[in-house]
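Lab manual, section 2.4: Encoding a predicted structure.

Procedure: take the sequence of the chain (127 residues), apply the prediction step described in section 2.3, and record the output as structure tokens. A sample record is shown.
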Amino acid sequence: MDRERFEQLVIKAIESLPDEFLELLDNVDVVVEDYPTAEQLEIEEVEDETLLLGLYEGIPQTMRSSFYGMVVPDKITIFQKAIEAMASSDDEIEEQINKTIRHEIAHHFGSSEETLREIEGYDEEFQ
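Recorded output:
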């Protein structure tokens, strides 16, 4: 899938979020990259670049205090090639983008990886 179409699907996924979540997405940039960097893989303790589909980097809203301000935006990165590697059709790519966006936004709102894995039904080996 070309980058422009993939990015359109990311925008569509964000815009499909309920208004109450969109209103609270303060100071967050969403970007698309092919794969995670070596540093991102190391921080997330993931060895295979195709297993990390998205990444939230920032200060979750639950950790912000009244002193929060004048900081660089939080960043959600969606990894296009990793998502494409696990999907066998454009429909599956779109579905995985939606899941990944929601997963990473949940981190922005303070959900831990362990909690999200439990909710999503993933075992401990899945990244």
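Check your result against the sample. The chain has one domain: 3-120.
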